[in-house]
Amino acid sequence: MIQFFLEYIESFGIGPVQSRIVLTGLMIVVAGILVVIAEVMIRNFLLRALSAFARKTRTTLDDLLLQHSVFRWLAHLIPPVLLYNFAVPVLQFYPDSIGLVQSLVTIYLTVIVIVLSLSALDALQSYFSTHPIAGKMPLKSFIQVLKTVIFTIGSVIVVAKLLGKSPIVFFSGIGAFTAVIILIFKDSILGFVAGIQLSTNNLVRVGDWIEMPKYGADGDVVDISLVTVSVQNWDKTISTIPAYALISEGFKNWRGMSDAGGRRITRSINIDMQSVRFCDEEMLGELERIQLLKPYLESRQSEIDEYNATHDVDTAMPVNGRRLTNLGTFRAYLVAYLRNHPKINPEMTFLIRHLQPTEHGIPVQIYVFSNDIVWANYEAIQADIMDHVLSILPYFGLRVFQDPSGGDIAAVGALLAQAKEAS
């Protein structure tokens, strides 16, 4: 057929050389028209059909592929493929130019494949960002590694085609540049290795509350990338931590608290030791009116009376036998109060204990867990508990120890002045 067209052109008095140029030009025009028609049809029909189909389906993946222009870049693959295949018949009279044209088309095709792959990875990242797996694995780090690999391979292919060399030659010589590559991509390599360790050992996820004072980080993890981990602190500032620093330096992760469903409350009240004494009949009569304390007093007092009677204790002297103290009764009340508190988790550690006495009194420590781990609610719960505890101390004849203030000194001065006037 090519010979037929050549003879037809030569019938107009055109020489063999010129006829080949004319025929080649005509075939280039026809090939260009076919490529344009193919792209127009794909854009106007196939892409519209895919877009309509994606909008009607229930899954969000196809919508994300459409949003990130994956279908559009996929359609761009057709023209270079056609050009690559048209090069041989169209340029058959100029075989030396076929290789050049195909190399240029290959470069163009490689660029489109790179952009298409990166867009597809972006769509997958957006899709899995709302999936439960996103909280367990640093998907962004893995996707960034894949992007780096794809871009590197694509760049090698493009450079190889521009230099007229086989890409295999460049890949085989990469070992000689390993030291340079490691130096350039040091943070990326360390971050990738750290990301694998973090995900494999399940050390940190997006949404975890972590604490790393060296980097000023104390808040929720909002992003885990190939190189860095971003933490939104409680004051809404963002701290950026190198991913490998989490492995090499260590950090505190509060996820265990969230998973357990309880947040620790540990507070101490320093009791003035001079206010500690045995409970007399009058105090016991008042304390029995406290509903939470009444069962304890009845059971405890019965046990004490039985013990003293069995051992023929002389109760006229308070130090003989066993007696209730105001501090012990106060601790019993704290146990009953917190056991009945709706915001305390009874399944976790529950302690009301004395600590070592100091020059600032004897500390009574509350060591319990709230069942609400939200920061604001947690602070409100322990504040309400401490308000209540401080308010009931006088009912037990106890005083909180605190260093003398200016008001205390002024009150003592006023009393001395009154005593002096009276004398």
Automatic annotation (TrEMBL):
Domain Mechanosensitive ion channel MscS: 187-255
Keyword hit for Membrane: yes
Main location group: membrane
Membrane topology classification: Multi-pass membrane protein
Entry keyword Magnesium: no
Residue spans crossing the bilayer: 20-42, 73-94, 100-121, 142-162, 168-185
GO molecular-function term, one example from the UniProt record: mechanosensitive monoatomic ion channel activity
InterPro entries: LSM_dom_sf, MscS_beta-dom_sf, MscS_channel_2nd, YbdG
Intracellular or extracellular location(s): Cell inner membrane
Entry's Gene Ontology BP terms: cellular response to osmotic stress
One Pfam short name: MS_channel_2nd
Keyword annotations: Cell inner membrane, Cell membrane, Membrane, Stress response, Transmembrane, Transmembrane helix
GO cellular component annotations of the record: plasma membrane
Protein name (database record): Mechanosensing system component YbdG
Native source organism of the sequence: Prosthecochloris vibrioformis
Lineage: Bacteria, Pseudomonadati, Chlorobiota, Chlorobiia, Chlorobiales
